[in-house]
Amino acid sequence: MARANQFQFAEIGARLRAYRLGKGISPEDLADRIGISRAALYRAEKGEIRKIDTLTSIASVLNVSLPSLMGVGVEYVSTAVAFFERMRQLEEECQQIIGLFSPISYLLTSDEYDLVLREVLMEANQPVDLGERSKEQVINDLLDLLAARKRTFREKRPLIVSLISTGDLQRFLMHGPVGRYDLPSALVRKRRLMACREAGHIAELIRSQPMGVQVGLVQEPVPATSFQIFRQPERSVLAISPYRLGEQPNIRLGVALITSAPEAMTLHESIADRLWSDSLKGDEAVQHIRSMIAKFGLES
Description:
Helix content: 55-70%
CATH superfamily of the largest domain: Endonuclease Chain A
CATH architecture of the largest domain: 2-Layer Sandwich
Mean pLDDT: 87
């Protein structure tokens, strides 16, 4: 029981940090607003929470409900920065990841993808208004979190099952990773060539079968929202995301959901099982991706 309570408080501290980052509030600023020391806030983010009044004050300043902060029922996350920080935290503790993301799970993307992603996010026509931070600051925070996720994944190597939609991959090849569609033709061509290389990277992952990595190519229609299942030693967690990286990214609007509710877990695990069962795998998937590159991509 003591271990379970310790785990619960650590989770509350992790959410506190994620929501603070999502609001762009520094530790010093948040501590000052609720009338505690920076050291006390640091301990709270580590899960050393002594007073419910402190949590209530933090929830009020961060504009989140106390149940969400405590992880009761469904956790609602209203910023991309907070959501991807929560993803990082969950991935740090999990043994297996099952994901449907477009065009592929970020964790399996190449290093080149990271270099282009910043340009794509900066050129997107979407206002980013989070306190006094600029759009560039928000994007830099987000990219730092994404890089931390990829480092953790490569160090810990949890098992991962990545489901890829052929429809999403086709659009990725036809448009490339772009933030908007009115870009100069030379830049669009450059991005489409990059998309071909990224698709080739996916095909090579499937061909080489690195330990712990499974990729399935889904030909049937997939859900409009991305989701990821984290299987941890003592429980499983589901994250449903409206945020999108790559072609026409969305890091501004939407509400992500995180929950361990049995019904939600069962339904999404059933969807994942069906998509995986019917997906193309191995050499068949490799050949299909290569044919898509030839049909919808560009030659260098």
